[in-house]
């Protein structure tokens, strides 16, 4: 250990001072520190030029350092050239700098919404009268991977729709089935002319679900919570089927009611 420490101090001094400043240090060392058995250090002392200590005493791994450095330089040059030309950047990877979210074009929004099963018409205006009285017609539509059976005026919660805001009018065009008291229409798999109109009322969060994982005798426990994002839709109209005419109810007067009551025979 003593010899090793002496050699380390010599190497540090030799790297910081010149060979002339190192000679008095070598004269003060005891006879134990002979360098005959260490050719690397004897060559260092005998040489007049300053050696590269990193290449002589550093530890090298299996890979060649010179080849790695050349490959790294080539890789950096390729990256610089690609950044200058800008040809390697794809249009799909463009994101906004502040939020980090992808920016969709109008065509992309329309195509992705159609793949999910809806189409955004526009915001609801004050002059629109979209809400109607109840009609005895039902529809089964699909949006995403879920199916719902609805009627006029119903409210449903679905997974959050990305490209619509609150108070937007949307059309659900993947209608699988329509029904009324007089007829039933079944799609194969969808009805091309049937549509369900709805209005987005709010974007909300579902109740929290706790996910707990445990492995016994392993000191492993993980607890996570999840709240699914939902969109609330209000069904306003169902189109694509003949709707029955609602009968007109005639209100009976009090006189007619009293006459009917008087004619009823009282049991003895």
In summary, what is this structure?
This protein is an alpha+beta fold. It has seven helices and eleven strands.
- Structural class call reads alpha+beta
Task: Give the N-terminus to C-terminus distance in angstroms.
Answer: 128 Å
Mean pLDDT over the residues: 76
* CA gyration radius, whole angstroms: 42 Å
Adjacency order of strands in the biggest sheet: 1-5-8-11-4
> What assembly state would you assign to the polypeptide chains in this entry?
single chain
Overall number of strands: 11
Give the percentage of residues in beta strands. 25-35%
Sheet with most strands:
5 strands, antiparallel
Q: In DSSP terms, counting alpha (H) and pi (I) runs of 4 or more, how many helices?
A: 7
Region (Disordered): 59-108
Protein name: Large ribosomal subunit protein bL21m
Organism: Daucus carota subsp. sativus
Keywords: Ribonucleoprotein, Ribosomal protein, RNA-binding, rRNA-binding
